[in-house]
Amino acid sequence: YVLTKIHIFSDKLDLSCILPVHLLTSKEKAADMKSRTSKALKDVKSNNVAHLQLEFLSCCRHFRTYGSTFFIAEVYMSQPHTSHLRAHCGVNDYGLHLISCSSMVLIASYDHRELKWSYDNGKPFLEVYARAHRHQMTLRTPQAAYIYMLLNKLSGQGAEKGSLNEPR
Protein backbone atom coordinates (compact mmCIF):
# COMPACT_ATOMS: atom_id res chain seq x y z
CA TYR A 1 0.00 0.00 0.00
CA VAL A 2 2.73 2.45 0.99
CA LEU A 3 4.62 1.58 -2.17
CA THR A 4 1.73 2.66 -4.38
CA LYS A 5 1.81 6.05 -2.69
CA ILE A 6 5.50 6.65 -3.55
CA HIS A 7 5.32 5.45 -7.14
CA ILE A 8 7.58 2.40 -7.04
CA PHE A 9 8.06 2.38 -10.80
CA SER A 10 10.05 5.60 -10.77
CA ASP A 11 13.66 5.11 -11.86
CA LYS A 12 14.79 7.38 -9.05
CA LEU A 13 13.20 5.36 -6.26
CA ASP A 14 15.06 5.79 -2.99
CA LEU A 15 14.58 2.54 -1.11
CA SER A 16 16.07 4.03 2.04
CA CYS A 17 12.74 5.79 2.64
CA ILE A 18 10.94 2.45 3.00
CA LEU A 19 13.59 -0.10 4.01
CA PRO A 20 16.02 -0.24 6.95
CA VAL A 21 19.55 0.87 6.05
CA HIS A 22 21.09 -2.49 6.99
CA LEU A 23 19.19 -4.13 4.10
CA LEU A 24 20.78 -1.78 1.56
CA THR A 25 24.48 -2.28 2.23
CA SER A 26 25.55 -2.65 -1.41
CA LYS A 27 24.38 -1.50 -4.86
CA GLU A 28 23.68 -5.11 -5.87
CA LYS A 29 21.57 -5.70 -2.79
CA ALA A 30 19.67 -2.43 -3.37
CA ALA A 31 19.02 -3.35 -7.03
CA ASP A 32 17.79 -6.78 -5.97
CA MET A 33 15.49 -5.26 -3.35
CA LYS A 34 14.13 -2.78 -5.92
CA SER A 35 13.34 -5.53 -8.43
CA ARG A 36 11.76 -7.74 -5.73
CA THR A 37 9.70 -4.79 -4.48
CA SER A 38 8.56 -3.92 -8.03
CA LYS A 39 7.56 -7.54 -8.66
CA ALA A 40 5.66 -7.72 -5.37
CA LEU A 41 3.81 -4.53 -6.23
CA LYS A 42 2.78 -5.91 -9.63
CA ASP A 43 1.51 -9.07 -7.90
CA VAL A 44 -0.71 -7.14 -5.49
CA LYS A 45 -1.69 -4.23 -7.73
CA SER A 46 -5.01 -5.88 -8.59
CA ASN A 47 -6.06 -5.94 -4.90
CA ASN A 48 -7.97 -3.03 -3.44
CA VAL A 49 -6.45 -0.78 -0.79
CA ALA A 50 -8.62 -2.10 2.07
CA HIS A 51 -7.54 -5.68 1.31
CA LEU A 52 -3.86 -4.66 1.22
CA GLN A 53 -4.18 -2.82 4.53
CA LEU A 54 -5.83 -5.84 6.14
CA GLU A 55 -3.11 -8.14 4.81
CA PHE A 56 -0.41 -5.79 6.10
CA LEU A 57 -1.97 -5.65 9.57
CA SER A 58 -2.32 -9.42 9.71
CA CYS A 59 1.43 -9.69 9.05
CA CYS A 60 2.21 -7.08 11.70
CA ARG A 61 0.17 -8.90 14.36
CA HIS A 62 2.74 -11.70 14.32
CA PHE A 63 5.57 -9.41 15.47
CA ARG A 64 6.35 -9.45 19.19
CA THR A 65 6.51 -5.67 19.14
CA TYR A 66 2.96 -5.30 17.73
CA GLY A 67 0.88 -2.91 19.81
CA SER A 68 3.85 -1.54 21.75
CA THR A 69 3.99 1.96 23.12
CA PHE A 70 7.48 3.29 22.40
CA PHE A 71 9.64 5.76 24.30
CA ILE A 72 13.13 7.01 23.48
CA ALA A 73 15.59 6.05 26.21
CA GLU A 74 19.28 5.83 26.98
CA VAL A 75 20.02 2.21 27.86
CA TYR A 76 22.95 1.51 30.17
CA MET A 77 23.82 -2.19 30.37
CA SER A 78 25.88 -3.36 33.32
CA GLN A 79 25.55 -7.13 32.77
CA PRO A 80 26.65 -9.24 30.90
CA HIS A 81 28.92 -6.42 29.70
CA THR A 82 29.00 -2.67 30.08
CA SER A 83 27.53 -0.74 27.18
CA HIS A 84 25.38 2.26 26.37
CA LEU A 85 23.02 3.00 23.51
CA ARG A 86 20.10 5.19 22.53
CA ALA A 87 17.05 3.04 21.90
CA HIS A 88 13.33 2.99 21.30
CA CYS A 89 11.98 1.21 24.36
CA GLY A 90 8.64 -0.48 23.67
CA VAL A 91 6.17 -1.98 26.13
CA ASN A 92 3.22 -4.21 25.26
CA ASP A 93 1.38 -7.24 26.64
CA TYR A 94 4.35 -9.47 25.70
CA GLY A 95 7.02 -7.48 27.50
CA LEU A 96 9.81 -4.99 26.94
CA HIS A 97 11.50 -4.39 23.56
CA LEU A 98 14.64 -2.44 22.69
CA ILE A 99 15.22 -1.14 19.16
CA SER A 100 18.43 0.72 18.27
CA CYS A 101 17.72 4.34 17.30
CA SER A 102 20.62 4.42 14.84
CA SER A 103 19.98 1.19 12.90
CA MET A 104 16.31 0.50 13.77
CA VAL A 105 17.27 -3.12 14.49
CA LEU A 106 15.56 -5.03 17.29
CA ILE A 107 18.20 -5.55 19.97
CA ALA A 108 16.22 -7.55 22.49
CA SER A 109 12.72 -8.58 23.52
CA TYR A 110 12.05 -9.63 27.09
CA ASP A 111 8.96 -11.47 28.28
CA HIS A 112 7.23 -9.95 31.35
CA ARG A 113 7.70 -13.23 33.22
CA GLU A 114 11.49 -13.01 33.01
CA LEU A 115 11.72 -9.37 34.11
CA LYS A 116 12.12 -7.61 37.43
CA TRP A 117 11.95 -3.84 37.47
CA SER A 118 12.08 -1.04 39.98
CA TYR A 119 11.51 2.69 39.87
CA ASP A 120 12.24 5.51 42.32
CA ASN A 121 9.47 8.13 42.29
CA GLY A 122 10.50 11.38 40.67
CA LYS A 123 13.68 10.04 39.05
CA PRO A 124 14.11 9.49 35.29
CA PHE A 125 15.53 5.96 35.75
CA LEU A 126 14.02 2.50 35.55
CA GLU A 127 16.13 -0.45 36.71
CA VAL A 128 15.42 -3.66 34.77
CA TYR A 129 16.79 -7.16 35.27
CA ALA A 130 16.07 -9.94 32.75
CA ARG A 131 16.55 -13.21 34.63
CA ALA A 132 16.73 -15.58 31.63
CA HIS A 133 19.36 -13.49 29.81
CA ARG A 134 21.04 -12.19 32.98
CA HIS A 135 20.86 -8.68 31.56
CA GLN A 136 21.00 -5.84 34.07
CA MET A 137 20.14 -2.44 32.60
CA THR A 138 19.10 1.07 33.49
CA LEU A 139 16.68 2.92 31.22
CA ARG A 140 17.08 6.68 31.44
CA THR A 141 14.12 8.60 30.06
CA PRO A 142 11.77 11.34 31.26
CA GLN A 143 8.97 8.79 30.74
CA ALA A 144 10.41 6.21 33.20
CA ALA A 145 7.28 6.46 35.37
CA TYR A 146 5.04 5.69 32.36
CA ILE A 147 7.15 2.69 31.36
CA TYR A 148 6.99 1.47 34.96
CA MET A 149 3.18 1.82 35.07
CA LEU A 150 2.77 0.09 31.69
CA LEU A 151 5.00 -2.82 32.73
CA ASN A 152 2.96 -3.25 35.92
CA LYS A 153 -0.40 -2.99 34.18
CA LEU A 154 0.37 -5.12 31.12
CA SER A 155 2.15 -7.83 33.09
CA GLY A 156 -0.90 -8.20 35.32
CA GLN A 157 1.08 -7.37 38.46
CA GLY A 158 -0.62 -4.06 39.16
CA ALA A 159 0.86 -1.94 41.91
CA GLU A 160 -0.28 -3.97 44.89
CA LYS A 161 1.27 -3.24 48.25
CA GLY A 162 4.26 -5.49 48.79
CA SER A 163 4.86 -6.11 45.10
CA LEU A 164 8.48 -6.73 44.09
CA ASN A 165 8.10 -3.95 41.55
CA GLU A 166 6.63 -1.34 43.87
CA PRO A 167 8.12 2.16 43.53
CA ARG A 168 10.50 3.15 46.31
TrEMBL record:
<feature type="domain" description="KRIT1/FRMD8 FERM">
    <location>
        <begin position="86"/>
        <end position="150"/>
    </location>
</feature>
<dbReference type="InterPro" id="IPR057096">
    <property type="entry name" value="KRIT1_FRMD8_FERM_C"/>
</dbReference>
<dbReference type="Pfam" id="PF24522">
    <property type="entry name" value="KRIT1_FRMD8_FERM_C"/>
</dbReference>
<dbReference type="InterPro" id="IPR011993">
    <property type="entry name" value="PH-like_dom_sf"/>
</dbReference>
<dbReference type="Pfam" id="PF00373">
    <property type="entry name" value="FERM_M"/>
</dbReference>
<feature type="domain" description="FERM central">
    <location>
        <begin position="11"/>
        <end position="71"/>
    </location>
</feature>
<dbReference type="InterPro" id="IPR019748">
    <property type="entry name" value="FERM_central"/>
</dbReference>
<protein>
    <recommendedName>
        <fullName>FERM domain-containing protein</fullName>
    </recommendedName>
</protein>
